[in-house]
Amino acid sequence: MSEKHAYVVMIKEKWWNEFCRLNRAGKTNHAYVQSGSAPPKNAKLIFFYVVKPVGEIQGYAEFRERVVGETDTMWKEYGRESCLSENQYDDLLRGARKVSFIRFTNLHESSNPILSNDILASLGVNRLPRRGFYISKEVADTLIKIME
After folding, report:
1. Where does residue 68 rank: exposed (0-12), middle (13-18), buried (19+ CB within 10 A)?
2. What is the pTM assigned to this prediction?
3. pLDDT 10s per residue in the chain (148 long)?
4. CA–CA gap between residue 36 and residue 71 (Å, rounded)
5. Domain count of the chain?
6. Which structural domain, as residue segments, surrounds residue 106?
7. How far apart are CA 37 and CA 144, in angstroms?
8. What is the CATH number of the domain that holds 105?
């Protein structure tokens, strides 16, 4: 499990900003929504890579669980944990039948975000996967030290 200790989620800036706003307002349970059976399945932490033009890991949280199900049922059960309105949810899923709610808590905003070039260099890759990727405990611990 150490190679799959944490997962890096790709997130749009507007959704990251909304999670941060809700977190600062006292909301503690959150859910990131993706169509289909999206990863992660198992992890201890989630890191949030805010996609271009930002291109930075801007925070992390404790992973609770990934729940997959029918779109209507999932919205009724977990929609309040997302940062989406019902209309935004429908627009995001565009008719998909299955949806994943990636539930997390204890959101930390980084005081020192990590640039994409630094992430690429530390992982020894040229490109980051579009759907996200798992990282080891050692890499996760290093990222947290850099961000704090």
Report:
1. middle
2. 0.91
3. 457 899 999 999 999 999 999 999 999 999 999 998 889 999 999 999 999 888 899 999 999 999 999 999 999 999 999 999 999 999 999 888 999 999 999 999 999 999 888 877 777 777 777 788 999 999 899 999 999 8
4. 9
5. 1
6. 2-147
7. 27
8. 2.30.130.30
Polymer length in residues for the chain: 148
Question: Sheet harboring 29-35: ordered strands across?
Answer: 29-35, 98-115, 56-70, 45-50, 6-11, 133-135
Whole-angstrom distance between the N-terminal and C-terminal Cα of the chain? 25
The three-class DSSP label of residue 3 is helix
Place of tokens 């299955």: 98
Tokens of 124: 């020894």
What six digits make up the tokens of 86? 């019902």
Structure token pair of residue 70: 């029918």
